[in-house]
Amino acid sequence: MERTGDKLFEKALEYPATLDTVPKIKATTPLIITFDSQTVNDTSLVLDQALVSFQHVDTKNEVALPARAVKSTESYKMDVSRKNFRLHFSSAPGVYNVALVLGSFKQGGLFYDLGNVEMVAPKGTKEKKHEVAYGPKPEIHHRFAEPQKMPNILVSLFFTGLVVVPFIGLLGGWAYLGVNADKLQMEPVGSVVFMGLIAAYITLAIAYWIGVKLFPTLTYALVLALPTYLTGQYALSKRIEK
User: Fold this and answer.
1) Fewer CB within 10 A of the terminal residue: the chain, N end or C end?
2) Which residues in 54-66 are b (16+ Cβ under 10 Å) and which e?
3) 11 or 206: whose pLDDT is higher?
4) Prediction pTM value
5) How far apart, in Å, are the Cα atoms of 152 and each of 91, 128, 147, 149?
6) pLDDT at 7
7) In what order do the strands lie in the sheet with 75-80?
């Protein structure tokens, strides 16, 4: 323990020895714990976990503070600063059991009980009482989103009817140009396959309109493109020959 650079208490321990006294720790008297770890062969051991545990003897509440590695001395250091003292111990003074909680992936873990220390709260500090109240919580009232206002059914039917207008325009254009299907029987197989592929394109367009995604639609269209071109060319060439 140190205060303004002066050591008030110093104790060196070697596992499994413990403190033989109960030193008093105040906010103005920071507690510093320095330790090193070694293997059974007396070689330095790098720890994967190094914590200092403070457990209140009466309430059993526990505070675990990490110890940082000091590379220059190959040791570990933990100090209870004034900030940590006010945060963890000012509101809960009393006797604490201090222990090292060490861990290594290679060598395993170790729980080293160092002994007890007494945390003395500054004068005028009141201990906080943590009370847990059990009972029903306030009722939660959910408010769902109001349904979106839909247009009149006549408006929906009007725009649905507009979808058919391009098809009617297509038939009107064919009639205006004098297109007819009288000579399709001259090459029935090619004509039927060609018209079937055209119908597949129309079905694909309807499927895209209903819910098929864009990229699957383009994939199916590319698959139909080459057969449609070949069967159309074949049917038209046979018609010209006859």
Assistant:
1) C
2) bbbeeeeeebebe
3) 206
4) 0.46
5) 68, 65, 15, 9
6) 55
7) 31-35, 75-80, 68-70
